[in-house]
């Protein structure tokens, strides 16, 4: 919320000098716009809407502008592990759901770091044409019997109500407001000095069309933390989000991050030439620069290279020649340009959750199209993937959201199972190193500090060099991957609940002996996407209804003929009119057998198409699809060995 305030520095200084500057209660856990409104009233100023916030995490355009430097040795700003020593995962905001996917006035469960939260979008019914919306969040646990608040409801007053015994909580503060079984609420409040009857509220907000929550404490901690990272183009005039998608993966969020920032896999895993524009080579080296902000709490890294076909052209072109016919890259992507006009392929990772990719103008740093990825660390071995295309697209070209979902689901399926096969090794090796650390230090640091790895270890920093020891970086494009790998190795021990879950895996050998989840489970679109996307779910429901209607329509001519032979004397006066209509329809159909046949064929085609579309939202990418994709690779990269 602080970053919504016009004068950020003054405001933060005032807050850091004491909550009394705004007369906020010391235990204040107010979240969202309520806090902002409270501060406006006390401080006497108005805040700006979040859309006007300009990010401090914008792409380093100085790098993009210095194309001439790329002709020389790639200048990588390296740094030691100490670069990340102040990084705190709990001091960051995390996107958990698209705001448009969050139903109004209904609690919804989201997961972050293996902890469940309940979020809701409160919509005022009496605010006129423009209804006032506000997002709220709490730990998804009722303090009474630990039942999930997400299984309950939102009251008319906007409070979370537990479905078990009806306890109600202020969604902004977590304060218990009502216990139906107790008459004298005041006596309980007085006797409950430790606030055990209160729930735990979590700061929440909407930023760039997404719901973000802050897991690191209340309002005071949220104000001191780095603001949510932004995609600059989303807030600029003329740009809009073309498509937004969400999918839950049984893939560790660290592996998913590395996969997205690895353009080299595009030619082989996806059979797409576009990725080659982000790959580096000896002629187009990758420049990697990183930035530490917010007193070390914020960290980002940006890679830049000339947006040319690095693999399909350049020094590797001769290697990739077909003796009968040369494999030619996409002419649109590889058309000749003047050196100063070549776009800069830019990839920025704003830790811990945002990746932005775009081909930017070397002089201005501008782009007409960018792709953004938000990775929510749901927990060890799982993640929530959210992405959006951002560009200058006219409104009349707007297409239904679900069409984009079908395309991106097909794309994501191509390499997700590969990541599942990789995950066993990576998490197994991480577990092995954690267990080794525990064993080596059992008589030293851990014993002296009375540390139990089975408990919360967010205060314990361990360097876990999984990627440094286990990965083999060779590609010129992997300079970015190496820096991101160093960041993960240095900070993963600080991820909430990570060490406990990693330790429970039992080490590398035990992980490798466990069975790999099946392809159908890894690529189950229905549970991972369709059920949590209202647009896709609506398409599935419509497809089912269309198929049912087509079956009824196809049987209608037969039904008419059967009913036409009924005895009119047996029908009541009320049904006589219907009976006469059936007789007339029978006569009409008897004279037009071709029409009946066309009717049946049309219904069958419509039902077939609806069934075909419905299947796009379930498990689809079987081994046959995979083999078909593998057969496409030689058309891009010739088999030479």
From TrEMBL:
TM ranges are: 594-611
Gene Ontology CC: one annotated term: chloroplast
Taxonomy, superkingdom: Eukaryota
Intracellular or extracellular location(s): Membrane; Plastid, Chloroplast
- Keyword Phosphoprotein, does the record have it? no
Residues forming the Rieske domain are 93-199
GO MF, one example: 2 iron, 2 sulfur cluster binding
Give UniProt keywords alphabetically: 2Fe-2S, Chloroplast, Iron, Iron-sulfur, Membrane, Metal-binding, Oxidoreductase, Plastid, Transit peptide, Transmembrane, Transmembrane helix
Record PANTHER family:
CHOLESTEROL 7-DESATURASE NVD, IRON-SULFUR DOMAIN CONTAINING PROTEIN
Q: What is this protein called?
A: Rieske domain-containing protein
Originating organism: Corethron hystrix
């Amino acid at each position: 919320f602080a970053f919504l305030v016009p004068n950020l520095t003054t405001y933060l200084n005032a807050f850091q000098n004491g909550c009394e500057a705004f007369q906020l209660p010391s235990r204040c856990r107010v979240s969202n716009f309520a806090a902002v409104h409270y501060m406006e009233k006390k401080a006497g100023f108005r805040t700006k809407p979040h859309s006007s916030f300009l990010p401090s995490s914008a792409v380093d355009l100085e790098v993009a502008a210095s194309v001439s430097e790329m002709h020389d040795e790639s200048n990588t700003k390296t740094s030691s592990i100490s670069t990340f020593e102040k990084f705190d995962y709990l001091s960051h905001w995390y996107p958990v759901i698209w705001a448009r996917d969050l139903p109004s006035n209904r609690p919804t469960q989201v997961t972050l770091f293996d902890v469940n939260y309940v979020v809701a979008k409160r919509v005022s019914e009496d605010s006129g044409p423009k209804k006032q919306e506000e997002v709220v969040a709490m730990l998804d646990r009722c303090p009474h019997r630990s039942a999930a608040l997400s299984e309950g409801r939102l009251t008319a007053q906007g409070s979370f109500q537990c479905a078990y015994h009806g306890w109600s909580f202020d969604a902004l503060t977590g304060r218990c407001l009502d216990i139906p079984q107790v008459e004298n609420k005041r006596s309980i409040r007085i006797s409950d000095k430790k606030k055990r009857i209160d729930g735990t509220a979590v700061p929440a907000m909407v930023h760039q069309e997404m719901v973000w929550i802050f897991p690191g404490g209340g309002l005071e901690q949220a104000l001191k933390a780095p603001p949510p990272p932004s995609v600059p183009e989303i807030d600029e005039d003329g740009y809009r989000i073309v498509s937004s998608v969400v999918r839950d993966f049984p893939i560790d969020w660290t592996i998913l991050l590395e996969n997205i920032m690895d353009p080299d896999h595009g030619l082989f895993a996806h059979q797409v030439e576009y990725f080659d524009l982000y790959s580096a080579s000896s002629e187009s080296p990758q420049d990697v620069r990183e930035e530490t902000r917010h007193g070390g709490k914020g960290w980002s890294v940006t890679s830049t290279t000339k947006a040319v076909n690095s693999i399909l052209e350049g020094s590797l072109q001769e290697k990739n020649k077909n003796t009968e016919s040369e494999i030619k890259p996409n002419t649109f992507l590889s058309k000749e340009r003047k050196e100063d006009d070549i776009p800069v392929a830019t990839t920025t990772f704003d830790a811990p959750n945002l990746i932005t990719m775009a081909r930017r103008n070397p002089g201005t740093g501008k782009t007409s199209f960018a792709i953004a990825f938000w990775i929510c660390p749901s927990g060890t071995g799982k993640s929530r993937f959210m992405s959006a295309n951002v560009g200058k697209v006219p409104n009349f070209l707007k297409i239904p959201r679900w069409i984009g979902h079908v395309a991106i689901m097909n794309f994501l399926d191509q390499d997700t199972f590969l990541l599942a096969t990789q995950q066993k090794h990576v998490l197994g090796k991480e577990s092995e190193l954690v267990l080794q650390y525990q064993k080596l230090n059992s008589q030293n640091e851990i014993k002296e500090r009375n540390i139990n790895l089975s408990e919360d270890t967010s205060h314990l920093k361990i360097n876990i060099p999984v990627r440094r020891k286990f990965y083999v970086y060779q590609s010129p494009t992997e300079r970015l991957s190496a820096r991101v790998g160093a960041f993960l190795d240095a900070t993963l021990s600080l991820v909430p609940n990570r060490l406990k879950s990693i330790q429970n895996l039992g080490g590398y050998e035990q992980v490798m002996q466990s069975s790999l989840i099946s392809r159908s489970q890894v690529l189950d679109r229905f549970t991972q996407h369709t059920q949590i996307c209202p647009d896709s779910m609506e398409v599935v429901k419509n497809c089912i209804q269309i198929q049912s209607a087509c079956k009824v329509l196809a049987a209608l001519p037969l039904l008419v003929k059967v009913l036409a032979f009924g005895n009119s004397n047996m029908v009541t006066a009320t049904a006589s009119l219907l009976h006469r209509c059936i007789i007339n329809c029978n006569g009409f159909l008897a004279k037009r057998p071709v029409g009946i046949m066309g009717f049946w064929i049309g219904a069958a085609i419509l039902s077939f198409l609806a069934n075909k579309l419905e299947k796009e939202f379930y498990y689809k990418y079987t081994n046959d699809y995979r083999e078909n994709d593998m057969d496409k690779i030689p058309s891009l990269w010739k088999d030479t060995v």
